[in-house]
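Let's practice the habit of predicting before peeking. Look at the sequence and jot down your guess about where helices and strands might fall. Then scroll down.
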Amino acid sequence: QVQLVESGGGLVQAGGSLRLSCAASRSIFTIDVMGWYRQPPGKQRELVAEITSGGSINYADSVKGRFTITRDNAKNTVYLQMNSLKPEDTAVYYCNAKKLGILGFASWGQGTQVTVSS
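Done guessing? Here is the structure:
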């Protein structure tokens, strides 16, 4: 297992930017997939972006071209750069780590609130 701590959330006006960070308690070098999810008010949690250990990246259609996920294995940290924010991006953002296979696991952070005002 790995403990994850998100930071960087806050209140921003539409069109603004934020960078979220997810710090892991140990090396993420062997973590197969690191991802960001979000849960808007009254809605289900949804995938925002994920990056594999090999560097493959997947984005939700709603954030393509605006958000960028990066992974720094040396710092045990994953980032989510969010530009051109919209009110509909308002949500609690969660970091996720997935180790695949028989000894696999999935860990979640506690979440960080992002609020975009119009």
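How did you do? Residues 43 and 117 are 18 Å apart (CA to CA).
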